[in-house]
Amino acid sequence: MGTRDESDEAYVVDLCNQVLGETALTQHKFDWLLGDPGAGGRRAGLPVDAYWPGHQLVVEYRELQHDQPMPHFDKPDRLTVSGVHRGEQRALYDGRRDTEIPAHGLRLVVVRPADLDADSCGRLCRNPESDLAALNRILARDSDEDRVTDAFRTWLLAQGWTPVNPTDRWTDLEAVRGKERLVCEAKGRTSEKGIDADIAYGQLLRRMTSGSPDTRYALVVPSSSVRAAERVPAHVRRLLRIDVYEVTDDNQVRELPA
After folding, report:
1. Edge-to-edge strands of the sheet including 107-111?
2. 124-147 exposure pattern, b = at least 16 Cβ within 10 A, e = fewer
3. For each of the chain's 258 residues, which pLDDT tens digit applies?
4. Angle at 171 between CA 216 and CA 239, to 5 degrees
């Protein structure tokens, strides 16, 4: 039997690390995600397969035993602390993860063998090229603003920034690096590029509650909105400590000259 490091789960998590540009915390436990109480009343934490704090993302890799009965894994003749056999408890705990993780403000993505290159028994063939392409689609967000935000977050992590809980709950993204702080407003593709850019500048202005020169502000836009964002003159952006970043269609990030 292989180790966890050699498992399909570890393989999937490693590919997700490549997609996200951040190394996951594996088998991570949250103090609010707990199993059922044991004989002594203690409730152990339920681990998640992988957690990326910078992306506020949890990925669960669920093999076939999570979706269909398998006596070898389920141990139907043994009861767990939940009063049911292992297979039923697994379904119970998966449901708890599905409910509690989004309820605590995190994004949950479930990956199954059928989503990747796998054989009929659910074993991964480990084709990195096709599996990476599939995971890029699976991990993609629903809206283009989400795509822009995620791409910029990944770029920030690569530049040594650490995403933090925003001071203003309406802020799309906030990050720190040493004494520096960056407050970000992101926009996705839109048919009203000029209006959306003007709104974004206004949103950043309302968040300029700090007089510290170490705090800067970022407007993050897709390539299609660069010209609209540049309508505010560069010298005005410099005075306001606003930097404009472009996220290209292939999720590359570049800072526009000021």
Report:
1. 25-34, 45-52, 57-61, 107-111
2. beeeeeebeebbeebbeeeebbeb
3. 456 678 999 999 999 999 988 899 999 999 999 988 876 778 889 999 999 998 889 999 998 776 666 554 545 566 565 556 676 788 888 888 988 998 888 889 999 998 999 998 889 999 999 999 999 888 877 678 888 998 898 899 989 999 888 888 788 899 999 999 999 999 998 888 999 999 999 999 999 998 899 999 999 999 999 999 999 999 999 999 999 999 998 889 999 987
4. 25
Sequence-distant (6+) residues with CB within 8 A of 59 are 12, 13, 16, 24, 48, 49, 50, 52, 108, 109, 110, 111, 139
Name the burial class of residue 21, with classes exposed (0-12), middle (13-18) and buried (19+) by CB atoms within 10 angstroms of its CB. Answer: middle
DSSP label at residue 146: H
Q: Are 111 and 138 in contact (CB under 8 A)?
A: yes
Q: How far apart are CA 72 and CA 75, in angstroms?
A: 6
83 backbone φψ class: left, alpha, beta (φ>0; ψ -120 to 50): left
Phi, psi of 242 (to 5 degrees): -105, 125
CA distance 28 to 5: 15
Instruction: Using CB atoms within 10 Å of the CB of residue 29, give its burial: 0 to 12 exposed, 13 to 18 middle, 19+ buried.
Output: middle
Q: Within a 10 A sphere around the Cβ of 4, how many other Cβ atoms?
A: 9
Query: 103 to each of 29, 98, 107, how far by Cα in Å?
Result: 16, 9, 9
Domains and CATH numbers, the chain: 4-139 (3.40.960), 144-255 (3.40.1350.10)
- pTM attached to this predicted model: 0.58
